[in-house]
Specification:
Elements lengths: L5 E3 L5 E3 L4 E7 L14 H13 L4 E5 L12 H8 L3 H7 L5 E4 L3 H11 L3 E4 L5 H10 L2 E5 L10 H18 L5 E4 L8 H9 L12 E3 L4 H4 L10 H13 L4 E4 L2 H12 L2
Parallel strand pairs: 3-4, 3-10, 4-5, 5-6, 6-7, 7-8, 9-10
Antiparallel strand pairs: 1-2
Helix pairs in contact: 9-10
């Protein structure tokens, strides 16, 4: 990703990020905070995958270990047991899909690469050395998340820039250039810090890397109005519109069709 507007897939295709892409969430978990995103078992997984394809998903983000606030991650063995029967179905149903794996475990990412090939590792942990080396050695695009816990009075934007810049420099030294940065909405931040990050999101353009946002139906868009996750589509769309106008290049969402329509509305068809 030499110009901040493209990244390469596992098979060498160049993905253009001049216009925002929609990353559809596909959870192989029984406990993700939004029940409609869960696809347990092969039949439900296929059905959800076909729906996402018909709605125009640009990237599929598959997760098998919930990282919602307050949750305890399942074991590595359990995470892999959930993924093993499902990942090959993606290539059966949609051979040229751009696949992102939502995991913070390098061993899970490596096994998925060997099993069926993945295009992106979406790592909410902020990364560790063995993950950095894995994506650099394999040339797999990487989502670097600002997941650092903040004090209540910390400037979230300044902290995000420092955290992400330090790790970007290290990834680049390892030869990893295909990096997307995620401000980590909901991870270790107060409600005010989350919204400050969103309102000042354009500051992340200083990093000269594409920005990915994961806001969809999260507590930050729900709590002020007392909404449940099921009721939060309109509030999510309002937050997504702010992010798109601020230059977000990938929008991670539970609601693909709605997000595609929103991008067309905000930026023009």
């Amino acid at each position: 990703m030499t110009d901040g507007m493209t990244f390469c897939t596992r098979d060498g295709r160049l993905v253009d990020l001049q216009r925002p892409l929609v990353m559809g969430i596909l959870n192989a978990t029984p406990d993700s905070f939004y029940a409609a995103s869960r696809a347990l078992g092969a039949d439900a997984f296929r059905q959800r995958l076909r729906q996402m394809r018909s709605e125009g998903t640009d990237i599929i983000d598959i997760g098998a270990c919930s990282t919602r606030p307050g949750s305890t991650p399942v074991s590595e063995d359990e995470e892999w047991a959930r993924l093993l029967p499902l990942l090959p179905l993606v290539r059966e149903e949609w051979p040229d899909a751009i696949v992102s794996l939502d995991t913070f475990r390098p061993s899970i990412a490596e096994r998925a690469m060997d099993l069926c090939g993945i295009d992106i590792v979406n790592d909410v942990s902020g990364g560790r050395e063995d993950m950095y080396r894995l994506v650099a050695e394999t040339g797999t695009a990487y989502v670097l998340t600002f997941s650092q816990a903040l004090g209540e009075t910390d400037d979230a934007v300044a902290a995000a820039l420092l955290f992400l810049e330090e790790r970007l420099q290290h990834l680049h030294r390892l030869g990893q250039m295909d990096v997307l940065v995620d401000p980590g909405f909901g991870f270790g931040k107060t409600h005010e810090q989350n919204w400050d990050l969103l309102r000042r999101l354009s500051a992340l353009q200083l990093l000269e890397q594409p920005v990915l946002v994961g806001i969809s139906r999260k507590r930050m868009v729900r709590e002020a109005a007392g909404l449940s996750a099921d009721e939060a589509l309109d509030a999510t769309n309002e937050a997504h519109a702010l992010a798109i106008r601020a230059g977000a290049k990938v929008v991670r969402t539970h609601d693909v069709a709605s997000c595609k329509a929103l991008i067309a509305q905000v930026l023009g068809a």
